[in-house]
Amino acid sequence: MNIGDRIKKIREVFDLTQDQFADQLGYHRSHISLLEKGERRVTERIVKDICRTFGINREWLINGEGEMRGNERQFIEAVVNSLGVMDEEDRTLLTLYLLLTPEQRKVIRTLIDELLKANNKKK
């Protein structure tokens, strides 16, 4: 897998079109297309933009070494922000939820289930 393939993989993980991916980075779709095809050189600026915007591990992007995700919180925030349908409070809540341990998430899900059941009984 070359760097163009890895750029495409990032885009696919975030479920973005080339247009959407380019918009988030501040580039044109054609530029992203050329990068993915290996027809344009990937500059240091592009690497920094991708890593910062999507929380990607720089070494993975450049050399394919290590894990794709860099900073866990930055990666989660990038995923949440890519959804684009939430307000700031929703994004913060979802980001914090994803940072919880599996046991903590189970407690939250139980509380939500109880709230939904109580709400349904009122109807």
Can you tell me the CATH superfamily of the largest domain? lambda repressor-like DNA-binding domains
Query: Between the first and last Cα atoms, what is the distance in angstroms?
Result: 55 Å
Rg, please?
A: 18 Å
Q: How many separate structural domains? A: 2
**Helicity, as a percent range:** over 70%
Q: How many E-type strands? A: 0
The CATH class of the largest domain is identified as: Mainly Alpha
Mean pLDDT: 88
Q: What would you say the CATH architecture of the largest domain is?
A: Orthogonal Bundle
Specify the biggest β-sheet. Answer: none
Beta content comes to under 5%
Structural class per helix/strand content?
mainly alpha
Describe it:
- It is a single chain.
- The protein is mainly α and 123 residues long.
- It has two domains: 3-71, Orthogonal Bundle (434 Repressor (Amino-terminal Domain)); 86-122.
- The chain is 73% helix and 0% strand.
- It contains eight helices and no strands.
- The chain has helices at 3-13, 18-25, 29-37, 44-54, 58-63, 72-83, 88-99, 102-122.
- α2 (18-25) crosses α3 (29-37).
- The termini are far apart.
- The model has no long low-confidence stretch (mean pLDDT 88).
